[in-house]
Amino acid sequence: MGGHTAANAVAKQGRFYSRIYRFVGSWKVEQNTLMIRWDNTNKVEVVRAEKSELQFENNQTKLFVRIQEPKTLPEWFAPECLSKRFEKPPSV
């Protein structure tokens, strides 16, 4: 037991609720990238964690996402790294 491999990796995806917009959507995290999709649209928004695991942003679209709670993210949601670039997952 131990070791985190592609075979036993837990999918970092799920559902969320926005208090501000009062909408539900889906999310997925890969490396430092958070992809979100609102249930009322098929558009996928992409933001990255650069400075904090609680803040994701996209400078081109000006979208800014701040995680309100929990203040300490569980491993299954936390970005794997912080970076100015959109990082790609390593090849398997």
Oligomer state equals single chain
For the biggest sheet, the summary is:
6 strands, antiparallel
Low-confidence stretches: 1-8
How far apart lie the N and C ends?
A: 20 Å
If you average the pLDDT, what whole number results?
A: 84
Number of helices: 0
The structure class reads: mainly beta
Inertia-based shape? globular
What is the strand content? 35-45%
Order of helices and strands: EEEEEE
Find the count of extended strands (DSSP E, 2+ residues). Answer: 6
Helix content: under 10%
Strand order of the largest sheet: 1-2-3-4-5-6
Radius of gyration: 14 Å
Could you give the topology of this structure?
Blueprint: E1 13-18, E2 23-30, E3 33-38, E4 44-52, E5 55-58, E6 63-66
Antiparallel strand pairs: 1-2, 2-3, 3-4, 4-5, 5-6
Key phrases:
mainly beta, 92 residues
Can you characterise this structure?
Strand 3 (33-38) and strand 4 (44-52) form a beta hairpin. The chain has a 6-stranded antiparallel β-sheet, with no helix packed on it. Residues 1-8 have low confidence and may be disordered. It is built from no helices and 6 strands. The chain is globular and about 30 Å long. Helices cover 0% and strands 40% of the residues.
